Amino acid sequence: MSHTGRGAPWPFQPPVAQRDVKAEVIYCVGGVISPVLLNVALHGMEEAAGVRYMTTGVNAGKTWPGSPVLVRYADDGLVLCRDAGQAQQVKQQLQRWLEPRGLAFNQAKTKIVRVPRAQKERLGCR
What we know:
Helix content: 25-40%
Radius of gyration: 24 Å
Structural class: alpha+beta
Strand content: 5-15%
Strand order of the largest sheet: 1-2
């Protein structure tokens, strides 16, 4: 097949299988695809954190009382726990889950903090 232009035919490029292709690694950091790739990589994180959802009835989709709640946005995350002991346990579970995936918490940004009651009520936690 060829494309005919001003007098001379120009052949199409050969298919990729016929070309000498040099493999390149493309880093998507900061690109529009990064959050999508991270969501794929982090699929299953809620289960690893111990988040439990009600599956039937009028409360289906809500978390069980006492269950941690995991909120992710791109590469940031927040886990809401009932107390510091649960928070420490969830952090350890997530560290074990992240490790085989080649991921780890940023220790400078990872903290366990107590949320004042007034703030909890604004978040809808009781």
